């Protein structure tokens, strides 16, 4: 009956890739002492009645290694952008110059580096949970197929395949966060 069962491991892999991509986006928002436009990606501004990413209300530039500037297109939004940055938890104090908001990136002290390392670890744990949830989805499909008449050998094969895929992505999460934590701790 269920000899035709084939788990879509490509789909499972794509979904796990999505968890890794999301982790990378979250990690890119953590500042490492160097200026980067991507550190502002998670910051949302209350513009025109909805929450909008900063890069949709102004131009984000990195004119020098320790400075990010945002040229806000609408003068009325300058205060809201400044407020969003202050409340974002990035630990940056914006300076206004007309419609340009300058963000000087201070050196990170040891305590702040450790905090950011912990935040990176939390992001990684979220990615691991996502990968494990996808593993569970795959295992549930296998269990359903087993109930529909799949042989025990096939069940073991597919369970091993899903577990190998899960192990591969958990290892990738660990490597990604380890690299970011080293970057954060670099003085």
Automatic annotation (TrEMBL):
It is found in: Cytoplasm. One of its GO terms (molecular function) is ribosomal large subunit binding. One of its GO terms (biological process) is cytoplasmic translational termination. Pfam families: RRF. One of its GO terms (cellular component) is cytosol. Coiled coil: none annotated. Signal peptide: none annotated. Keywords: Cytoplasm, Protein biosynthesis. InterPro entries: Ribosome_recyc_fac, Ribosome_recyc_fac_dom, RRF_sf. Residues 24-185 form the Ribosome recycling factor domain. Responsible for the release of ribosomes from messenger RNA at the termination of protein biosynthesis. May increase the efficiency of translation by recycling ribosomes from one round of translation to another. HAMAP family: RRF. PANTHER family: MITOCHONDRIAL RIBOSOME RECYCLING FACTOR PSEUDO 1 (PTHR20982:SF3), RIBOSOME RECYCLING FACTOR (PTHR20982). Belongs to the RRF family. This is Ribosome-recycling factor. The gene is frr.
């Amino acid at each position: 009956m269920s000899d035709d069962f084939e788990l879509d491991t490509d789909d499972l892999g794509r979904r796990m890739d999505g968890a890794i991509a999301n982790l990378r986006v979250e990690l890119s928002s953590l500042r490492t002492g160097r200026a980067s436009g991507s550190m502002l990606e998670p910051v949302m501004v209350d513009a025109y009645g909805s929450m909008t990413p900063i890069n949709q209300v102004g131009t984000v530039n990195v004119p020098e290694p320790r400075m990010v500037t945002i040229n806000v297109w609408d003068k009325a939004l300058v205060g809201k952008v400044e407020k969003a940055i202050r409340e974002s938890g990035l630990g940056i104090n914006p300076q206004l110059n007309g419609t340009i908001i300058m963000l000087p990136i201070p050196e990170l002290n040891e305590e702040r580096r450790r905090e950011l390392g912990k935040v990176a670890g939390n992001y990684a744990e979220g990615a691991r949970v996502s990968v494990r949830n996808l593993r569970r989805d795959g295992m549930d499909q296998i269990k359903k197929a087993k109930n529909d008449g799949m042989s025990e050998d096939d069940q073991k094969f597919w369970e091993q395949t899903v577990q190998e895929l899960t192990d591969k992505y958990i290892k990738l999460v660990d490597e990604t966060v380890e690299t970011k934590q080293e970057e954060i701790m670099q003085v």
